[in-house]
Every structure is written in structure tokens, then in C-alpha cells.
Specification:
This protein is α+β, with helices and mostly antiparallel strands and 158 residues long. It contains 2 helices and 10 strands.
């Protein structure tokens, strides 16, 4: 039995806080070629995940909020926000599923946020994600401003 308890979540969360990317994964799948990828994603506010989609190969992705607040945002092909949910166990928004070929990002809105993610495998870094050309690449100086602009749009529409 694999157990996910507060102690383990806190351990992964602390690793995210000390990471330069402000996030940390913990994989439950033993191999990257497993057909079902299962992982914890600990994320801190300010971490930037470039909007992307899973296409060729198509993959469905599911996020469950275990702790904190996490926004999952869907975009049009032009980069306009078309839907979002703020996952938060306190509000009763526990999870969401992103279909294949859907532009999306995940944003930590609270310190210590942790999601459980399930995604079709196998994982191959070469074709796992198709990154949006209309959003800055991770590490670019404009990432923080872009992230803030998305968050502000969510607040206005929430």
C-alpha cells in the first residue's frame, strides 16, 4: 500500500520551497514508460509552468488538490483563457480533468500547495508536452509578469 499522509506531503513541499523552480514532483510510477503516470506535484506561488497541451501522443491529465489552492487554466489556441477552476479542498473544488489537445497550465495560489496528478503514459520528455508559442518559455524574464497577468484575470472572473 502506498500512503500519502501529511508528513510525506510536507516533506515534498519543503523540497519545492528550496527548489530553484519552486516545485517538486514525486513519482509513484516505478518507470517512466508506465502506461499510468502518478505523481505528487508540490508547487509554491511564483513557479511557472508554461502553458502546454498533450498531443501526439494524446494524453488525459487529472489533478486532485491535496493541500493549498491551485488554479488549473485552459486556453484557446490564441492564448485566451476559456475556462479555469481553483482547486481548494476548503471550497469543495477537489479535482479536474484536462482532455488531450487542450492548452493548459497549473498555478500555485497558496504556499504549500500540493496536487496529485494522474496522466497517461509513457513519459518521454521529447514529446510529452507541446508548449504554447504565445506564452514565455520557462526561465524567460517575462514569466513572472505573464503569470501575474493570468492570475489577475482569474481573480476578476472568479
Amino acid at each position: 500500500m502506498i500512503k500519502i499522509d501529511e508528513t510525506f506531503i510536507e516533506t515534498i513541499s519543503q523540497k519545492a520551497k528550496s527548489s530553484s523552480r519552486l516545485r517538486m514532483n514525486y513519482n509513484y510510477h516505478p518507470q517512466l514508460d508506465d502506461l499510468l503516470q502518478r505523481m505528487l506535484n508540490a508547487m509554491e506561488p511564483g513557479t511557472y509552468i508554461q502553458p502546454h497541451k498533450h498531443q501526439d501522443p494524446d494524453k488525459t491529465e487529472v489533478f486532485f488538490c491535496l493541500r493549498g489552492k491551485i488554479a488549473v487554466v485552459e486556453f484557446s489556441n490564441e492564448g485566451k483563457i476559456i475556462d479555469f477552476i481553483i482547486l481548494d479542498t476548503q471550497s469543495g473544488n477537489y479535482a479536474c480533468e484536462i482532455p488531450p489537445r487542450t492548452w493548459h497550465t497549473v498555478i500555485s495560489l497558496e504556499i504549500g500547495s500540493v496536487a496529485y496528478e494522474i496522466k497517461n503514459g509513457p513519459y518521454n520528455p521529447i514529446d510529452d508536452k507541446n508548449f504554447a508559442s504565445w506564452a514565455p518559455k520557462e526561465g524567460h524574464e517575462s514569466c513572472a509578469a505573464y503569470l501575474q497577468s493570468v492570475i489577475e484575470k482569474l481573480i476578476v472572473n472568479n
